[in-house]
Each structure stands twice: as structure tokens, then as C-alpha cells.
Design a protein that fits this description.
The complex is a heterodimer of chains A (214) and B (294). By secondary structure, chain A is mainly alpha-helical. Chain A has a domain at 19-165: MetI-like fold (Orthogonal Bundle). Chain A has helices at residues 2-6, 8-40, 45-59, 63-73, 83-109, 112-120, 125-155, 157-161, 170-176, 181-210. Chain A starts with a helix and ends with a helix. By secondary structure, chain B is mostly helical. Chain B has two domains: 3-51; 65-275, MetI-like (MetI-like fold, Orthogonal Bundle). Chain B has eleven helices and no strands. Classes of the chains: A mainly alpha (214), B mainly alpha (294). At the A-B interface, helix 3, helix 4, helix 5, helix 6 and helix 7 of A face helix 2, helix 6, helix 9, helix 10 and helix 11 of B. Chain B: The chain crosses the membrane at residues 28-50, 82-102, 114-135, 240-266. Chain B: InterPro entries: AA_ABC_transptr_permease_3TM, ArtM/GltK/GlnP/TcyL/YhdX-like, MetI-like, MetI-like_sf. Chain B: It is a multi-pass membrane protein. Chain B: Belongs to the binding-protein-dependent transport system permease family.
């Protein structure tokens, strides 16, 4: 119990670090995932190929390998950035592949008649996608995107092992200070539970508000 | 006529008309421009690689030595060993936890639910570090135990979803024939559920295979660890990029092979007559959203 109260600022720093990583990487992943999903349904062949390769490769890359390559590899090309930026890049790119697949399968759940009807009304590609298909797809992608973002929050723990300030990394300092290691981990676990459960609560609210069962 | 209707792509939504001659020419132009941009990007990366001397003989010479090849192979073997243990154990744990969650006995049900929800919400790395640091376990058992707890809990949810997705008539018919609860589960529901969920189960095993690389962080001597040893060797001028260029295709290739197999199983099971009373799940790993699909 004392572990938390005596080292509150250390825990708080770690907690904020994890939240920051999660938020920035989520934004990057959502944007990149949206771009890749629109590439994958685009009428231009080379966009589709690019999107497919991006998703297939990143979905099958172990995240540790990606961190290893990005955090230790990119500096060798003379690209020197803070480790936190590298971590956000790695996490965001990795998760964007999953977001892309969630969005694409969401687009596919919209009945084809919807698209055909809007086509026959003379709507363009942008209009069809923007005002008919995506609003309906949005409702069915809430749970998979929530699930992906929870996975992202949990994956951010890997960044801690590559010396980025975040929650899991606090255990090292605390065990050097001689605190009870079991209690140290209990409080780390509580921190992660707070983050993952609040993301899932947020998405449950979104699901209640907008989700529909088709 | 829409584009996908003509191409016979039944899964997609009709987003745009079949392009006319002018649109086709414009798309062709876009295609050429984007291909050039992508090629230029690749060329730039290649230039950077040459510019920073990644292709010098000194950096690639270590891979010709037998000792280093054996080191890499041993690392790969250790990765596969951890994957094998973790996947078998997590399948067993998943089956046990799913049986617990479907149990009609309240205490068993609550215990299993608590276990599944807790381990799904916890980062797998925290569990591995806890077992490794706090319980002072050797790296391999710590890695396998962490992966088993996490993937077992996710698989439990997968199994449960599968059991619940079997057509209700199957269960009712089995009870009407006078079968007992356990018989209904083992002879009627579980076989169909496993068939339906096989693509998801294999995809979850891909997650387990990917996560074996976490062993690198607790000094388990797996594939990435072997790569790191070679990469930090001063004798060969720190061949970090060559190591990454050797390791990642092998790692990604293994995962792709397993993912492709999951997709193939999904297509196979969908055609099978034995999955008529249940929907075959797509080849995607299990969800981690608490209170997910019922």
C-alpha cells in the first residue's frame, strides 16, 4: 500500500506517459487506418496494392520486432528523434493496419443495395461514400475499433521496455529503491486496468448511442 | 452497372460506377503517378541504405560463418519451442475457462469470468514481467506462462462465442434425445463450435507467435535476441540493418503463412456440410473489448 502513496509522482508520471502514448498513437492509427482503408477500396489499382501490402505486412509483424527496427534502426539513417516519437510512430503504424481492416469490414457490412441505390440517384463516389455508406458503416465499426484501441493501450507497455517513460517502466526504479515487488506490480496492474476499462466504457457508451444490430 | 457487379466481387459495396473511357484514362494517369511516387520512395530508401554503407562486405560477412548461422537457427528453434508450448497450453486453458464460463454452477461461473476479464484487460508484457521479476521464474517458463494466461483467456471467449453461435435447435434436439448436459456439450455443441471457430483460433495463435518476440525483453534466447547479439558485434562493424533485413522476412513470413492458413481454413469450413447449423467466423483474432459479442 505504501508503495503507491510514497511514490505517487513516479506512478503518476508513468501513468501520464502511457496515456500520452495511447492518445497520440490512437490519433495516428485512426488517420492512417482511414487513409489505408480508402486506398483499399479505391478504383486505382496501385493504391489498392499499396494498401494491401501495408496491411498484410504490418498485421503479421511482431510489435517487438517493429520497435526493435524503428527505435534502434532509424537513428542509423541519421534520423534522431526523441524515443517517445519513435514509439508513437511504431505503435501508430502497427495499429493502423488493424483499424484499416476494421473500417473495411465495416464498409462491407453495409448492404450493397444502399450503394446501388445512391448510385442510381446519380451520386458521385465521394457522395456515396460520405453520405450513404460511411455513416452506416460507422455504426458497425464501433466495437472492433474499441477492441483495437484497447489492444493499442496494452501494447504501449512494450515501449517501456525500450526506455520510454510509461507505466510498466516504473517497476525498475521502484525495485532498485527496494520496495516490495509484488505490490509494485499490483499498482501497475491497477493503472492499466483504469486505462483499458475506461476505453471500453467510452466505446460502450458510443455503442449504446449510435450502434445498431443489423 | 456498377464496377463490382461486373467483376463478380460479391463482398464489396457498390461504391462507384463502372468507369467510362475518360475516367479510365484519368485512373490510369493516377495509377502511373502513384506508382512513380511509390517507386521513388523505395529508391530513396535504397539510396539511404547505400549512403549509410549498409551493403559493405564487412557488415554481411558474419552470415557466412557457421557459428552465427547456428546461433540464428538456435534462436529460431527457441522461438518455435515457446510458440508450441504456449499454443498447446493456451488451448487447454481456453477450453477449461470456457467450460467454467458456461457452467451453471454460480461460483465456477464467476471465478472463470473474473479470470477471463482480468487477463484480457492486462497487457501480456506486464504479466510476463511480473512472473519473471516478482516470482523469479526462468525466462522460458515466464514467457510461456504469460502468453498462456493471455491467449487462454481470449480463446475462452472465442470458444464461448462459438458454443453460443450453434443453432439452438441442435441443443434442443440433443436434449430431446435424452442426452445429458456433458454429452450435449461434448458430442453436439463443441465439435460444431470448434469447426466454426477454427479460423479465429488459428488467427489467435498468430498473435501468440508474434508475442513470443516479447521473450527478447526478458532475455529469453529467442530469434530477436540472437539477432541483437550479432548486431552489437563490433568486429563486423555493427551490422544492425543487415540483421533486421534477415530476421524480419523470416519472422513476418512465418506469421503470414499461419494467417494464410487461417484464411484457407475459413474458406474450407464455409464450404463444408458439417457447419450448416453454425456461422463460420472470419479469420480474425479474438476481440479484447470486455463484454464483447455474446
Amino acid at each position: 500500500m505504501y508503495v503507491l502513496t510514497q511514490n505517487f509522482s513516479l506512478y503518476w508520471h508513468g501513468f501520464l506517459g502511457t496515456v500520452q502514448l495511447t492518445v497520440y498513437a490512437s490519433i495516428l492509427a485512426l488517420v492512417l487506418g482511414f487513409v489505408m482503408a480508402s486506398f483499399r477500396v479505391a478504383p486505382v489499382g496501385s493504391f489498392r496494392v499499396f494498401g494491401t501490402v501495408w496491411v498484410t505486412v504490418l498485421r503479421n509483424t511482431p510489435l517487438t520486432l517493429l520497435f526493435f527496427a524503428v527505435l534502434l534502426g532509424l537513428p542509423r539513417f541519421g534520423l534522431v528523434l526523441p524515443f517517445q516519437v519513435f514509439a508513437v510512430l511504431a505503435l501508430g503504424c502497427y495499429t493502423s493496419a488493424f483499424i484499416c481492416e476494421a473500417l473495411r469490414s465495416g464498409i462491407n457490412t453495409v448492404p450493397k443495395g444502399q450503394g446501388e441505390a445512391s448510385r442510381s440517384l446519380g451520386m458521385s463516389f465521394t457522395q456515396t461514400l460520405g453520405s450513404v455508406v460511411l455513416p452506416q458503416a460507422f455504426r458497425s465499426v464501433i466495437p472492433p475499433i474499441g477492441s483495437t484501441l484497447i489492444a493499442l493501450a496494452k501494447n504501449s507497455a512494450i515501449a517501456g521496455a525500450f526506455s520510454v517513460t510509461e507505466l510498466l517502466g516504473t517497476y525498475k526504479t521502484l525495485s532498485e529503491l527496494g520496495y516490495n515487488i509484488i505490490w509494485t506490480f499490483v499498482w501497475i496492474a491497477v493503472g492499466y486496468l483504469i486505462i483499458t476499462l475506461s476505453i471500453s466504457a467510452l466505446f460502450n457508451v458510443l455503442e449504446k448511442r449510435w450502434g445498431i444490430t443489423r | 452497372m456498377t464496377a463490382h457487379a461486373l467483376q463478380g466481387d460479391l463482398e464489396s459495396t457498390a461504391l462507384y460506377d463502372l468507369p467510362g473511357p475518360r475516367t479510365r484514362r484519368r485512373h490510369f494517369l493516377y495509377g502511373i503517378v502513384s506508382t512513380v511516387v511509390i517507386l521513388a520512395l523505395l529508391a530513396w530508401i535504397l539510396y539511404l541504405l547505400f549512403d549509410t554503407d549498409q551493403f559493405t562486405a564487412a557488415k554481411w560477412s558474419p552470415f557466412t560463418y557457421k557459428g552465427i548461422q547456428e546461433l540464428l537457427l538456435k534462436g529460431l528453434g527457441n522461438t518455435l519451442k515457446a510458440f508450441l508450448y504456449a499454443s498447446v497450453l493456451s488451448l487447454v486453458l481456453g477450453a477449461v475457462l470456457a467450460a467454467g464460463r458456461l457452467s451453471v454452477h454460480r461460483p465456477v461461473h464467476w471465478a472463470a469470468t473474473l479470470c477471463v476479464e482480468f487477463f484480457r484487460a492486462m497487457p501480456v508484457l506486464v504479466m510476463i514481467f511480473f512472473i519473471f521479476v516478482a516470482l523469479k521464474v526462468q525466462p522460458l517458463p515466464a514467457l510461456v506462462a504469460g502468453l498462456t494466461l493471455y491467449n487462454g483467456s481470449v480463446l475462452a471467449e472465442v470458444f464461448r462465442t462459438g458454443i453460443n453461435s450453434v443453432d439452438r435447435g441442435q441443443r434442443e434436439a440433443a436434449y430431446a434425445l435424452g442426452m445429458r448436459k456433458t454429452q450435449v456439450m461434448t458430442f453436439v455443441l463443441a465439435p460444431q463450435a470448434v469447426r466454426a471457430m477454427l479460423p479465429t483460433i488459428i488467427s489467435q495463435l498468430v498473435v501468440a507467435l508474434k508475442d513470443t518476440s516479447l521473450g527478447y525483453l526478458i532475455t529469453y534466447e529467442e530469434f530477436l535476441h540472437a539477432g541483437k547479439l550479432i548486431a552489437s558485434n563490433l568486429d563486423y562493424d555493427l551490422p544492425f540493418i543487415p540483421v533486421v533485413m534477415i530476421i524480419s522476412p523470416i519472422y513476418i513470413g512465418m506469421c503470414m503463412l499461419l494467417s494464410w492458413f487461417a484464411g484457407w481454413v475459413a474458406r474450407f469450413e464455409r464450404r463444408s456440410v458439417k457447419t450448416e447449423a453454425v456461422d463460420v467466423a472470419p479469420a480474425e483474432p479474438g476481440t479484447v473489448l470486455p463484454g464483447g459479442p455474446r
